[in-house]
Amino acid sequence: MNIGNINFEPHPVFLAPMEDVTDIGFRMLCKRFGASMVYTEFVNADAVIRSVRSTINKFQINESERPVGIQIYGKSVDSMVEAAKVVEEAKPDVIDINFGCPVKKVASKGAGAGMLQNIPLMLEITREVVKAVNIPVTVKTRLGWDNDHKIIVDLAEQLQDCGIKALTIHGRTRSDMYTGSADWTLIGEVKKNPRMKIPIIGNGDVTTPEQTKERFSQYGVDAVMIGRATFGQPWLFREIRNYLDGNTEEHALSITDKIGILKELLRINVERIDEYRGILHTRRHLASTPIFKGIPNFRETRIRMLRAETCDELTAILDEIPEKFGL
Fold first, then answer.
1. Handedness of CA 264, 270, 275, 281 (dihedral sign)
2. Which is catalytic among the residues 30, 101, 162, 311?
């Protein structure tokens, strides 16, 4: 599979762009553990143009995380074109256009998945961004606005005609938000459409190596993108890669190994931002990681872990867990 001049191994698995999650530290860890491609948090086109510092910081990239995409969103042709030119200067491998974010603050203003209610503008933005930059442009979107308007099969062809080099489809409508189960049926229909020549990347409710393999075999997608399942377990990519490659001899990481990786993420975040915000940024992963689920009598330790205010305090709590709980 290729996206422009980027060559991927068979059955590539991508890290989805996620706000407040796919910062540079987490991306680098996911890449180290086998993510085929990673994406920045999405950035607002207007904020990019205004050079808002917090936004600019979101799309700083490191050579070790390549290939990496910068994802942008907005609601006007001019702002999206100008933002694309700005982020191109950061030298990403691709620019991804977000036409899929369902949250109210984005979609209700006509951006993200809100663009599914204005297909002519969506296509115009896509065409103009493709013309404005010299690197591959990709798109991420959903099945449609709601269950009565699942338009992705026709829309995929229209987006391809705009010149994009790959299309990621999340198997829900905007109205679904993140509820229910992702429907991959239409993703498969897009892939089977003989007029589609660009790679199709499937996204939605993939949480295990077994599910990843099933999505490839049943729906024929060129790549699988994983989002929320990566919270607190960047090593998921290694587990998936080993399973897809039939590498049964690879030893699984121990709980101690995994806690060490979470401690490394904590250190990265503290060094990158500051101690207070670095801890806050790490809590999402500590709260979501599956390695502590099902441990008897873990509630008190979990509360202490999520209330820790210093790096040393939090590290000490993490260090005591394997022995304390016999892991």
1. negative
2. 101
- Give catalytic status of residue 30 as yes or no: no
Strand partners, 111: none
Partner residues linked to 43 by β-bridges = 72
CA angle 257, 39, 308 (to 5 degrees): 45
- Residues whose CB falls within 8 Å of the CB of residue 165, separated by 6 or more in sequence, listed in order: 3, 4, 94, 136, 137, 138, 198, 199
Q: Could you give the residue ranges of the DSSP H alpha helices within the chain?
A: 24-32, 45-49, 53-58, 77-88, 104-107, 119-132, 152-161, 185-192, 209-219, 236-244, 255-272, 275-288, 299-307, 311-324
- Give pLDDT tens digits for 132-159: 999 999 999 999 999 999 999 999 999 9
Q: Under DSSP, is residue 257 helix (H, G, I), strand (E, B) or coil?
A: helix
C-alpha 198, offset from chain centre: 20
Lookup: tokens for 85: 């030119």
* Contacts with 212 (C-beta within 8 Å, 6 or more apart), sequence order: 11, 13, 206, 224, 226, 240, 243, 244
Please state the pTM of the whole predicted model. 0.94
Q: CA-to-CA distance for 268 and 120, rounded, in angstroms?
A: 43
Closest Cα partner for 224 from 245, 207, 243?
A: 207
Q: Is 73 helix (H, G, I), strand (E, B) or coil?
A: strand
3-class SS of residue 210: helix
Q: How many angstroms separate the CA atoms of 69 and 42, rounded?
A: 10
Q: Residues of the chain with pLDDT > 70: what percent?
A: 99
Q: Alpha helix (H) ranges present in 195-274?
A: 209-219, 236-244, 255-272
